From TrEMBL:
Domain Metalloprotease TldD/E C-terminal as annotated: residue spans: 230-436
Biological processes annotated in GO: proteolysis
Residue span(s) of domain Metalloprotease TldD/E central: 117-223
GO CC aspect terms: cytosol
Protein name: PmbA protein
InterPro entries registered for this protein in UniProt: Metalloprtase-TldD/E_C (IPR045569), Metalloprtase-TldD/E_cen_dom (IPR045570), Metalloprtase-TldD/E_N (IPR002510), PmbA (IPR047657), TldD/PmbA_N (IPR035068), TldD/PmbA_sf (IPR036059)
Domain of life per record: Bacteria
């Protein structure tokens, strides 16, 4: 029986059993991962997973149950559990299915699924080639480097969201990723660094030799790391690290944080958060995008929008439930944000523009409070003097307040990182406190 037929049959069954309404999320995925360690094949892992989640509504109450074994017996048990939980749960006015006029009706081909290779030999060859690229780079730098691990994996997924009101939406997606971890040694010191790539289509992965060389270059560059004195300086977040700042903003404007009053941005709708030259566009329909979706986890149609318009926060991200809790309208963000692109006049050489400060290439710790906006994290990277990288630094702490960091954003780099649903270059932030010696 087809997956869509199974879902439709279950929805009919729960209605016959007395549910007022019901929704189902079904997902299945498969993948293969290959890991090579120090030039030898270490592990080959295959995975095939399924999940079936049912939510029923009765007399205003909600009951949910799920199973990872999708057969007739387990589905029957899941139905009984969901109905039993609903019978014991207090009514919740915010719970329930989305209104039909909010549901997606236009299902674009988002080009998120690709015919990726599943042959172990293909993936092994990529990992071994990346290892050789790393070794060649180490030899060229006359550095003592161990290629700790080279990993590559591919996967495919398929999902259905369906409701007793007649909505049924399907999603397909594939992914491929690879990484190389290298350990550089010198005078008893060791520095462990890595590089990675992630794409939808395996054929678009970065060249394996280049990836290996990049990992070695990063680990060797960190040798001789030291600390600098505590002071207030500009901090340059490399593109991967600048994405985390957007991530903190997204957490603070999500519906769950807002209705729990656990957000430092809860009162800042239509407020100037960033400089006027800075905008963030959201587009769920980018072909092949990591955040491309026709509908959210509630079946609500997704739409392009401007999230930050010339520095001004123009909207929150509300799921169906959070919107009802806030007496607002859902924005199609059940399941999170879609593709986000920073729009700003970019600068090619932010290190030179910074002149003196801290280039952050790695962040550690969880010292970010999105309730208050306080920011404090461990960091490593490079000290910049006279517009040039002077030496590596590590075991530093950078601190500030996220609102101040957004306001004091001086420039965005042209080095756009596209390895996730957030696309941005490096961020140069003035006036941060760093602590070391």
């Amino acid at each position: 029986m087809k997956q869509t037929d199974i879902v439709t049959k279950v929805l009919e069954t729960v209605k016959h059993k007395g549910a007022d309404a019901a929704e189902i999320s079904y997902a299945e995925g498969s993948g293969i991962s290959v890991s090579c360690r120090q030039g030898e094949v270490d592990t080959i892992e295959n995975n095939n997973d399924k999940s079936f989640s049912l939510t029923v509504y009765k007399n205003g109450a909600k009951g949910s149950a799920s199973t990872a074994v999708v057969n007739e017996d387990s589905i029957a048990l899941t139905i009984e559990k969901a109905l039993a939980i609903a019978a014991l749960t207090a009514p919740d006015e915010a719970a329930g299915l989305a209104d039909k006029d909010l549901l997606a009706t236009d299902f674009k081909n988002l080009q998120t699924a690709h015919d990726n290779p599943y042959e172990p030999d293909t993936l092994i060859q990529y990992a071994l080639t990346a290892t050789e690229g790393a070794r060649a780079e180490a030899a060229d730098k006359q550095a003592d480097v161990v290629v700790d691990e080279a990993n590559v994996e591919v996967g495919d997924g398929y999902a259905i969201y369906a409701t007793s009101d007649g909505f049924l939406g399907e999603k397909r997606g594939s992914n491929a990723s690879a990484s190389v971890v290298a350990i550089a040694k010198e005078h008893g010191e060791m520095e462990r660094e890595y590089w990675w790539d992630a794409v939808r289509d395996y054929r678009q992965l970065m060249d394996a030799e280049i990836m290996g060389a990049k990992a070695v270059g990063r680990s060797v560059a960190q040798l001789g790391s030291r600390q600098v004195k505590s002071q207030q300086v500009p901090v340059l977040f490399d593109p991967a690290m600048s994405k985390t700042l957007i991530g903190h903003m997204l957490s603070a404007i999500s519906g769950s944080a807002l209705y729990q009053e656990a957000s430092f941005l809860k009162d800042d709708l239509n407020t100037q958060l960033f400089p006027e030259w800075f905008s963030i566009q959201e587009d769920p329909f980018i072909p092949g995008g990591f955040g491309s979706r026709n509908f959210d986890s509630n079946g609500i149609a997704t739409k392009p929008r401007t999230l930050i318009d010339h520095g001004v926060l123009k909207g929150f991200m509300l799921s169906l439930y959070s919107a009802r809790r806030l007496n607002s309208q859902p924005t199609g963000h059940g399941g999170g944000a879609h593709n986000l692109m920073v729009e700003a006049a970019t600068t090619a050489d932010l290190v030179k523009d910074m002149d003196r400060g801290f280039l952050v290439t790695s962040l550690m710790g969880q010292g970010v409070n999105t309730v208050t906006g306080d920011y404090s994290r461990g960091a490593s990277g490079f000290w910049v003097e006279d517009g040039q990288i002077a030496f590596p630094i590590s075991e530093m702490t950078i601190a500030g307040h996220l609102k101040d960091m957004f306001k004091n954003l001086r420039a965005v780099g042209a080095d756009i990182d596209r390895r996730s649903k957030i696309h941005t270059g490096a961020w140069l932030v003035d006036g941060m406190t760093i602590a070391g010696d």
